[in-house]
Amino acid sequence: MTVELTALTKSYDIPGGEEIAVNGIDLEVGEDEFVSLVGPSGCGKSTTLRCIAGLETPTSGEIRINGEDVTDTAPNKRGLAMMFQDIALYPHMTVWENIAYPLKVRGVSEDDRHEEATAAAEVMRIADLLDKYPGELSGGQRQRCALARTIVYDPKAFLMDEPLSDLDAKLKVAVRKEIQRVHDRVERPTIYVTHDQAEALSMSDRVAVMNDGELMGIATPDEHYNFPANKFIASFIGNPSMNFVTGQLLSSSDREERSSSGSRAKPGDGTITVEFHDNEIELGATVNEPRSETVEIGFRPEVVDLHADPDEGYFEGTLELIERIGDRRLATIQGPDGEIRAMVPDSYTASEGTQVSVSFDERDAHVFDDGTKNVVGRGRTEGAEITAESSS
Ligand code: ADP
Ligand code: MG
């Protein structure tokens, strides 16, 4: 089973113009694959999912399930299971009747219904609740009941739209595990919508990052984290988020002979050199051909080092705050480029208000074109094959 979107576009007429909610998305979710759609609120995640489900009619583009074009197929004929934040359990039916309802619609006998519903309830660990009514269940139990119902339905694919957002943190983790167990067991494509990048990274085989109706890139969680294709993905994936400082691109030849109108680094050149705050930093890999002289260097708080000696870092700033975030400590520095965040060990003793200098491991740095916002260089070569989805 597969789900395939080709140039999917959905726009709405609104007073004074049109709202393009989804703008030309291409996406293929493979057999047994778990793919998250993640992005800020309003970026088009739900609209994309609702188009796949058949609850919205695309303005243009195609949707295929298992190779079959279902773009104009009625929702109930697509064979998809959906799960939303607002769980639509029938309040006047018991748990078992709710779970077995898709089978009843299909004309399955009561005995077989009971057997299948009980098996699904056991998978979801709610077998002891079969005779209760939805009103008697907790939020997590209701979600499990809804999941059990999707299992008996035996869908071609699962579509889930922020199904966990109403649950408290502990329950979230538990139901997340249940969803993954269901996915592993039924081996069907699952498309999971969330605004929470950490949730997307922890659950998915691949993560599709959206912004403003567009697909910014699709990759595995590790690829997004280590080799972000563009500045949007770099800043959206990872928490606390990546730092950026502005610099000027110099090629190796520029460095040797600055006065010449020399060409800038090209893909395959092997190194890319950036000048910022009177420093030159050389990175190991050119990924895409740069369009602008101005670039942004991205580096995560995890790779920042702070020094008391101003000469040890690339630039100086004021240590404004050190706060604990779970098992780690996060330092915030106000520097010439604005705020820089750094993870510091518990042994770090500098006090708030002091001047510190900032350096980072260049091997973990990324260089983004200031015009296209696509990655042009990296500290490591491993990611060289991962390029941006679109270069506008
Ligand atoms: P997300 O789920 O990522 O938060 P949505 O898919 O719900 O985003 O919405 C994407 C954009 O489309 C938003 O700007 C939203 O306001 C707009 N939108 C969604 N549905 C409609 C509609 N029925 N009419 C007009 N605009 C809509
Ligand atoms: Mg939504």
Account of the 3D structure:
It is a single chain. This protein is an alpha+beta fold and 392 residues long. The protein has two domains: 3-228, Rossmann fold (3-Layer(aba) Sandwich), CATH 3.40.50; 235-390, OB fold (Dihydrolipoamide Acetyltransferase, E2P) (Beta Barrel). Helices cover 23% and strands 34% of the residues. The protein has a seven-stranded antiparallel β-sheet with strand order 13-12-11-15-21-22-14. β12 (272-276) and β13 (279-283) form a beta hairpin. It is elongated and about 80 Å long. Residues 12, 14, 19, 21, 39, 41-47 line the site of adenosine-5'-diphosphate (ADP).
Keywords:
seven-stranded antiparallel sheet, Rossmann fold, 2 domains, 22 strands, 392 residues, 9 helices, binds magnesium ion, alpha+beta
